[in-house]
Structure formats: structure tokens, C-alpha cells
Amino acid sequence: MASARGTERRAEILRATIEVIAERGYRGTTLGAVAERVGLTQQGLLHYFPTKEALLLAVMDERDQWDTGGGSRGADGWRLELLTSMVDYNAMRPGIVQTFSALLGESVTEDHPAGEFFTRRYVQVRGNMAGVLRDEFGDRLPSGLTPEQTAPLLVAVMDGLQYQWLLAPDEVDMPAAFRAFVTLLRGGADGPER
């Protein structure tokens, strides 16, 4: 079990990493820059996070904690409006979205240290999204699909929009595109308002 000081120091390092990512982007974030920000040597930083990948995975885990209000809780109380707000929020933090997207892309290669994290994460996220859809629509969406059939599509749209937005932020309005997708989920422009 980590000491209170160690836990506090790890949290300080994660905050500093998020700041450096926001300022320099994923590729510009180095262990040396983060170590300097928190007053450690690079060796001292490696005591808390043995690799850059381990540090960035901890940042992604922290990101998920913020996004879900605690991470482990299920979809209880979530609504599509909260997901829309989350997309709006992500549009204000391109460095974190860039880091998530870069790590996700790399994680599909064999033996990548982020592979297990993202595999586990997507199982949880699909389950949470199915819960959101079930709370909103019951057992069937207006399209006739079940929440379980639609959940992977919802996740794909959210993550796919992030990639498109990162590549062409002036052309892709991520929040507006997600709102359009929510309209489709609800049965189109003539679907029931919620």
C-alpha cells in the first residue's frame, strides 16, 4: 500500500503531466519535462512511473476518473446529455484527447503496454454505454436495435470523432457532430424529444 506522501506525489506528477501535455502535446511530453515541473530528477520520476507509457496510462486512467465521476460506478444516472457535455469538454482539452488517441492507436500493436488497459477500458465503456442507452430508450432504440448492439457504435462515434477533430479541427465540429448522432439515435429529426 502506498504511503500518503507517495500517493500525494503521484497525484502531483499526474497534474504536472496533464499540464505539460496541454502545453506541448503528446509527442512533446517528455519524462524530463514532467520531472522538472515537479522538482524531481528524471530518475526520481521513474521511482513513481517506470516508463513514459506507464505515466501516460496513469493520465488516461485519471482522465477516465474525471469523465465518469469516479470511474468504477456504472451508468446509473447517466444520460445522453452527459455524454454530449463530455464531448464538449473534450473539445476544450486537445492535449489530453491527443494523448488518448495516440496511445489508443499504438495499443493495438503486439505486446504494447497500453493494450491491456484499453482492452479492459472498452469492455467497461461498452457496458456503461449500453446502460446509458437502456436508461434512455428501454430495451429497444427507435431503430429497433438493442442497447447492447448500439453501444459499440456509440463508442466508435465518440472516439472516431476525436480522431477526425484532431486531424481537422477547423472542418470537424466534434460537439455538433455528436449532437447530430444523438438525433439519429433518437429516431432522426422527427424522433421524440428528450
Structure, described:
By secondary structure, the chain is an all-alpha fold. 71% of the residues lie in helices and 0% in strands. It is built from nine helices and no strands. The chain has helices at residues 4-28, 31-37, 42-48, 52-68, 80-90, 94-107, 115-137, 147-167, 174-185. α4 packs across α6 (94-107), α7 (115-137) crosses α8 and α8 runs antiparallel to α9. The N and C termini lie far apart (46 Å).
Structural topology:
Elements: H1 4-28, H2 31-37, H3 42-48, H4 52-68, H5 80-90, H6 94-107, H7 115-137, H8 147-167, H9 174-185
> Can you write the helix and strand succession as a string?
HHHHHHHHH
How does the helix and strand content classify structurally? mainly alpha
* Helix segment tally: 9
Catalogue the unreliable spans.
70-77
How much of the polypeptide forms β-strand, as a percent range? under 5%
Number of strands: 0
Rg over alpha carbons: 18 Å
Average the pLDDT over all residues and give the rounded result: 86
Largest sheet: none
> Which word captures the global form?
elongated
Task: Report how far the terminal alpha carbons are from each other.
Answer: 46 Å
Helix content: over 70%
Domain HTH tetR-type: 7-67
Protein name: TetR/AcrR family transcriptional regulator
DNA-binding region: 30-49
InterPro entries: BetI_C, Homeodomain-like_sf, HTH-type_TetR-like_transc_reg, HTH_TetR, Tet_transcr_reg_TetR-rel_C_sf
